[in-house]
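Exercise 7. Given the encoded structure of a 44-residue chain, write a plausible sequence.
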């Protein structure tokens, strides 16, 4: 029973970390895309 609870906690923490990392990566990608658009606009 204790092992099951420990596994549940570990998987919950891992899932939270994964979601946080994914959203962080998406933010970086979005800001990079925005920067590219600004750079393209400056060239023209």
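Solution.
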């Amino acid at each position: 029973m204790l092992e099951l609870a420990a596994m549940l906690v570990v998987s919950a923490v891992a899932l939270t970390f994964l979601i946080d990392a994914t959203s962080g990566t998406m933010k970086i990608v979005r800001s990079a895309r925005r920067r590219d658009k600004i750079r393209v606009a400056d060239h023209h």
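Remark. The first helix runs from residue 2 to 43. Students should compare their own answers with the one above.
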